[in-house]
UniProtKB/TrEMBL annotation:
Family per similarity comment: In the C-terminal section; belongs to the purine/pyrimidine phosphoribosyltransferase family.
NCBIfam families, alphabetized: purF
Positions bound to Mg(2+): T289, D351, D352
Name of the protein described by the UniProt record: Amidophosphoribosyltransferase
Protein source organism: Candidatus Yanofskybacteria bacterium CG10_big_fil_rev_8_21_14_0_10_46_23
Phylogenetic lineage: Bacteria, Candidatus Yanofskyibacteriota
GN (gene name): purF
């Protein structure tokens, strides 16, 4: 089955007397960067579950009227990320079951759904062409319909879920948060006026005035109902946060594993400056993610920082597909070079990652077009050589530039004067945390959750290629 869970945002709130759907709207707004394809909120007043979801950005999906149509004291919300594998309203979350007794919002992906499928089959449930998230919801529903308490059902189904998941489940009485035993995708808890809030990233707490408590630990189930908050460790915990959260996904004002994302990205830049000394006139970031990296690089190297590329704030991946002529403009729809900064300069340009190389190639071309003398491309992560199965939409290995080319070949492909990647060791060191706390699969090919039937999609490198693995040439 093709994955359709993918990199997304979840947000949930339990609070008597709070306008929970409006707060969820603002929470999802703060998490918009994690998914721009569709958005949804479900709420309950204890008697009924209400849900509104549609394709588009949070601000396009909700208005005063739709928020008013979501009453109650519990709510869950979801932003879905745009992927090649199925788009539009069909896959918008929260997932609902037909009798509207359970809704579920999922960030992550299950590479293997064989166990869930055989469980459902054993109960006579046939769910064809549905997402991994819908299968989890369906499995929970089967057990609840048989009379099991929802918490018990979660514990029963947990071992059948092979992959990454930060999940929020809502019934008419309870809000449940659940994180896979490796904690691959983030999830945190906060307090608000006697109630509790859950969010993929801590940046969603500040706008609604919630106070951060802690992360939901890997393998933990947190239940909130009228009796308050209950925490249960339901599986052995081995923290393996996806390091790509620090590299690319998370907002700089979020904290992960107690570290500021901004601070870690700045360290990436400082580390890059230690690893590579380049004679250049100006250092510019590819906005937004690489801005703190370029600040760190500029501070450490003494080369002036400039915003040489300006990003349009309002271009997103939305359900409005640009027509072919406009799509051919590619990166120019998003980024404009500032000639007065770049012309006749030796430019260092920094981006967070190279995946297919489409963006970086166009950026190099654009910088030369406005008169750069040299373009030195720096990347604040090591080469991405392995596909992702845990919800970050990295393409199959055949499309990953660094899986198929050496660094010299990539440099030639991009047309840059030079190309340097942050070393693997340098990336880990910059986090200030131990390597064992991370899932680094897209760089190392080491996958903490067994890929089962998807294993055959990964090709490991021969010794000659391994020499290039950590970005040294
Ligand atoms: P590419 O053009 O395919 O090499 O993609 C690299 C660019 O996409 C970089 O500018 C990254 O900031 C960004 N990026 C990295 N990973 C992802 C992802 N999973 N989804 C969307 N964009 C990404």
């Amino acid at each position: 089955m093709k994955s359709i869970g993918e990199k997304c945002a979840v947000f949930g709130i339990y609070g008597k007397g709070l306008d929970v759907s409006r707060l969820t709207f603002f929470g999802l707004y703060a998490l918009q960067h994690r998914g721009q394809e569709s958005s949804g909120i479900a709420s309950t007043d204890g008697k009924e579950i209400f849900c509104h979801k549609n394709a588009g950005l949070v601000a396009q999906v909700f208005n005063e009227e739709t928020i008013k149509g979501l009453p109650g004291h519990i709510a869950v919300g979801h932003n879905r990320y745009s992927t090649s594998s199925g788009s539009g309203i069909k896959h918008a979350q929260p997932v609902e079951v037909e009798d509207k007794s359970i809704v579920l919002a999922h960030n992550g992906n299950l590479p293997s759904v064989i166990q869930l499928a055989s469980f459902l089959k054993s109960r006579g449930v046939v769910l064809s062409n549905v997402s991994d998230s819908a299968m989890i919801t369906g499995a929970l529903h089967v057990l609840v319909k048989e009379g099991m308490e929802i918490e018990k059902a979660v514990e029963e189904i947990f071992p059948l879920m092979t992959g990454s998941f930060s999940i929020l489940i809502m019934t008419k009485e309870k809000l449940i948060a659940l994180r896979d035993s490796f904690g691959i995708r983030p999830l945190s808890i906060a307090r608000l006026n006697g109630g509790y809030v859950f969010a993929s990233e801590t940046c969603a707490f500040h706008p609604i005035g919630a106070t951060y408590m802690r992360e939901v630990n890997p393998g933990e189930m947190v239940v909130v109902d009228e009796n308050g908050l209950k925490i249960k460790q339901i599986a052995e915990r081995t923290q393996k946060l996806d390091i790509f959260e620090f590299v690319y996904f998370s907002r700089p004002d979020s904290n992960l594993l107690g570290k500021s994302v901004y601070g870690v990205r700045k360290n990436f830049g400082i580390q890059l400056a230690k690893e590579y000394k380049i004679n250049a006139d100006v250092v510019i970031p590819v906005p937004e993610t690489a801005i703190p990296v370029a600040v760190g690089y500029a501070n450490a190297s003494g080369i002036p920082f400039e915003m040489g590329l300006i990003k349009s704030r309002y271009i997103h991946r939305t359900f409005i597909e640009p027509e072919q002529h406009i799509r051919d403009q590619g990166v120019k729809l998003k980024l404009a070079p500032l000639k007065e900064i770049i012309e006749n300069k030796r430019v260092i340009v920094i981006d967070d990652s190279i995946v297919r190389g489409t963006t970086s190639r166009q950026i190099v071309k654009m910088l030369f077009e406005v008169g750069a003398k040299e373009v030195h491309f720096l990347v604040s992560s090591p080469p991405v050589k392995f596909p992702d199965f845990y919800g970050i939409d990295l393409p199959n290995q055949g499309e990953l530039l660094a899986a198929n080319k050496t660094i010299e070949e990539i440099n030639t492909h991009l047309g840059s004067t030079s190309l340097r990647y942050l070393s693997y060791e340098g990336m880990i060191k910059s986090t200030g945390l131990d390597e064992s706390l991370f899932c680094t699969s897209c760089f190392t090919g080491q996958y903490p959750v067994d890929l089962r039937e998807r294993k055959r999609e990964v090709v490991y490198l021969n010794q000659a290629h391994k020499a290039h693995r950590y970005g040294k040439i």
